[in-house]
């Protein structure tokens, strides 16, 4: 789901929190001081200064912690918006792609905000359905203002759309031992996937949702910003017994790429529709209305000119976003996300591949690495099998 706007394997420069003047213009998480104390290296993500990785661990150890034990990510940069008032859920359902009618209160849903004219993806979002008159949205950091703007412009008089971006922190507790850790804190863990409930920790109210962006068993805690430090401290006070590790957004990126999860701005965008990105499962095709419906139905009927596919390196090559794909002298696509897989110990990628190339899974293509060709095989994601399904 939802994360940083940074190319996997091609990370932005790390910042010095004491000397980088640009960092003072970025928003900061309410947990910023905790990250400094933990030796975090920072990078800009969607207008926020967020931890990339931590001292004493680094991307490989943080990645492995999530695959084998439990890690916690501060993803407070993600947006938060509330849609409320009579008919709020029906209004959201007439705008966003997925069908809220498929779920009931207490459930969350992955959905897309598409451009009405083109069907391109403005953002991908998690929608929390509280009631017919109350929907809470978590968009990506950089796109929150635009999503809110579009919803406000379309909202009827009785429906309000409020931007609550900095009112809440979000902590993603991910990994096979995540339920054990939360249970030790008396937080509810018996959730079905994509369901949520209100909870409290030492008198602090929060929301626990069975969601994540790693493929592992995991939860996301939506916490009022003023309680973020106390919740973070409670997790780490109980976490030693479960091998808890603080994880930065670089590891979150390698984890999501191993699962083949798309990143907005690379694998989804205004120029990459859900049909092209193979995200049609997040579209309520039978709904009478949603933004981009006509354009997407037409593209689906005609067939997309390109589709998002998985790639695995045959040799030691590491694919990077923007590298072109070739079969002989013919260019057949372009890498959108690419990185080194810590689990597989080889390069993996997502790429937009021309439909006319008619390439099946298992077919070999080549990437152009500064004029040198390297072979990769088309492979259906996910690239790894999570420890817990």
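^ Assign residues to that structure.
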């Amino acid at each position: 789901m939802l994360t940083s706007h940074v190319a996997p394997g091609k990370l932005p420069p790390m910042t010095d929190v004491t000397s980088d003047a640009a960092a003072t213009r970025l928003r900061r998480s309410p947990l910023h001081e905790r990250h400094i104390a933990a030796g975090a290296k920072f990078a800009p993500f969607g207008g926020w200064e967020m931890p990339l990785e931590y001292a004493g661990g680094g991307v490989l150890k943080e990645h492995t912690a999530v695959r084998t034990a439990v890690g916690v990510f501060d993803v407070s940069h993600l947006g938060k918006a509330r849609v409320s008032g009579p008919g709020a859920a029906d209004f959201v359902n007439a705008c966003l792609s997925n069908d809220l009618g498929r779920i009931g209160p207490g459930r969350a849903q992955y959905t897309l905000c598409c451009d009405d004219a083109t069907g391109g993806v403005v953002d991908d979002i998690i929608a929390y359905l509280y009631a017919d008159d109350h929907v809470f949205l978590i968009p990506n950091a950089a796109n929150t203002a635009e999503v809110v703007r579009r919803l406000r412009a379309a909202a009827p008089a009785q429906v309000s759309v409020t931007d609550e971006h900095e009112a809440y922190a979000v902590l993603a507790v991910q990994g096979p031992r995540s339920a054990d850790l939360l249970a030790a804190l008396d937080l509810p863990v018996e959730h079905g996937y994509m369901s949520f409930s209100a909870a409290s920790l030492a008198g602090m109210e929060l929301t626990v949702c069975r969601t994540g962006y790693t493929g592992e068993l995991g939860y996301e805690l939506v916490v009022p910003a003023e309680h973020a430090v106390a919740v973070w401290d409670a997790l780490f006070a109980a976490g030693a017994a479960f091998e808890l590790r603080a994880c930065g957004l670089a590891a979150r990126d390698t984890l999501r790429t191993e699962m083949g999860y798309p990143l907005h701005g690379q694998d989804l965008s205004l120029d990459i529709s859900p049909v092209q990105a193979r995200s049609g499962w997040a579209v309520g095709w039978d709904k009478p209305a949603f933004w981009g419906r006509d354009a997407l139905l037409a593209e689906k009927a005609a067939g997309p000119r390109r589709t998002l596919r998985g790639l695995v390196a045959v040799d030691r090559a590491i694919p990077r976003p923007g590298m072109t794909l070739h079969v002989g002298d013919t260019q057949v696509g372009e890498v959108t996300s690419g990185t080194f897989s810590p689990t597989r110990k080889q390069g993996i990628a997502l790429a937009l591949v021309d439909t006319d190339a008619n390439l099946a899974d298992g077919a070999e293509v080549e990437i152009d690495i500064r004029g040198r060709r390297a072979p990769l095989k088309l492979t259906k994601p996910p690239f790894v099998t999570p420890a817990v399904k």
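The chain is about 20% helix and 35% strand.
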